[in-house]
UniProtKB/TrEMBL annotation:
Residues 89-282 form the VWFA domain. It holds the Pfam family VWA. Keywords: Cell membrane, Membrane, Transmembrane, Transmembrane helix. Gene3D superfamilies: von Willebrand factor, type A domain (3.40.50.410). The chain crosses the membrane at residues 7-25, 51-72, 302-319. This is Double-transmembrane N-terminal domain protein. The keyword Cell membrane applies.
């Protein structure tokens, strides 16, 4: 309990002062009777009036104390905090063309990309996240969802060879945009990961980037591939798997253009560590928004003390009018 006017509580110091004055006054009022002996008065009670003679003064002090507390405006409060989480809608758009089997990442590009993406998903429990994969065509592997366990299981199943080969970057972006465009969240993000050059599809990467900008979707592009210009690649032959170096065929200018048009950023990943760092940077750039609302309700309690003061005054009045009534 708090008080709106706590300085008025100093008035309670009047109570001991009034008690001292009352005691002094009562002693001044007592008459002295000289008796030869008190033997005849022993065992004689004073009656109910004697026992209640100070009750009027006590009730008056209690009423005064209650009035002082009431004037200080006692208040009780209740407060609570309401946290509101505003998530972000994120579409992971991943290249699963056969070139993603290159082994400049461990164990290869696609498995490294899946592993880092799974850690990214696990770190954002409040966001809706979906998955689009593309090669020669694109499809939605998982729509936007907060069921991240299902999303991760779908991601694990995505491997090169399940759809027609080649690289349709524009189509992959367009499919992801189609999933994000009707989102009601303030932040809509598309993370595009590829290691190649757009060489098929009806939609160019630039056209897809313009479309993303129209719907307020930011695209973070990640180009994967060794910085040496070559990467080991497994070839299947009749004698088994043979690993040979192949050129890194990454269209960085287009990746940068997509990011610039849509208001995102471009990152280059050359190994597992740099890819992990890139996802950490994106995680920092696109933070889930947490807003806190504090609610506080104040209840006035002075009426209780005013009621108590009235009760004490009524008791005083009843005693003075009945048991302690003095004859005129």
């Amino acid at each position: 309990m708090t008080f709106l006017h706590p300085h008025l509580l100093w008035g309670l110091l009047l109570i001991p002062l009034l008690i001292a004055i009352y005691i002094f006054w009562r002693r001044k009022q007592e008459a002295t009777v000289l008796l030869p002996s008190l033997r005849g008065l022993s065992g004689k009670g004073g009656g109910l009036r004697v026992y209640l003679r100070h009750s009027v003064f006590v009730l008056r002090l209690l009423a005064l104390s209650a009035v002082i507390v009431a004037l200080a405006r006692p208040q009780s409060t209740s407060s609570w905090r309401e946290n509101q989480v505003e998530g972000i809608d994120i579409m992971l758009t991943m290249d699963i063309s056969t070139s993603m089997l290159a082994m400049d990442f461990q164990p290869n590009r696609v498995e490294a990309a899946k592993e880092v993406a799974m850690r990214f998903i696990a770190s954002r429990p409040n966001d809706n996240i979906g998955l689009v994969v593309f090669a020669g065509e694109s499809f939605t592997a998982c729509p936007l969802t907060q069921d991240h366990a299902t999303l991760i299981n779908r991601l694990r199943d995505m491997t090169p060879g399940i759809i027609e080969d080649q690289t349709a970057i524009g189509s992959g972006i367009a499919t992801a945009i189609n999933r994000l465009k009707d989102s009601k969240t303030k932040s809509k993000v598309l993370i595009l990961l590829t290691d190649g050059v757009n060489n098929t599809g009806n939609i160019s990467p630039k056209m897809a980037a313009d479309l993303a900008k129209t719907f307020g979707i930011s695209i973070y592009t990640i180009g994967v591939g060794s910085s040496s210009g070559e990467a080991p690649y497994p070839f299947q032959t009749e004698f088994g798997t043979i690993v040979r170096n192949v050129p890194v065929d990454l269209d960085e200018p287009t990746m940068k253009q997509i990011a610039e048009i849509s208001g995102g950023a471009y990152f280059r990943a050359t190994d597992n560590n740099s890819l992990s760092t890139i996802y950490q940077k994106i995680d920092q750039l696109e933070k889930t928004k947490l807003s806190t609302k504090n609610h506080r309700t104040i209840y006035e309690e002075y009426s209780l003390f005013a009621f108590i003061a009235v009760i004490f005054l009524l008791l005083e009045f009843l005693l003075r009018s009945t048991l302690l009534k003095t004859n005129p």
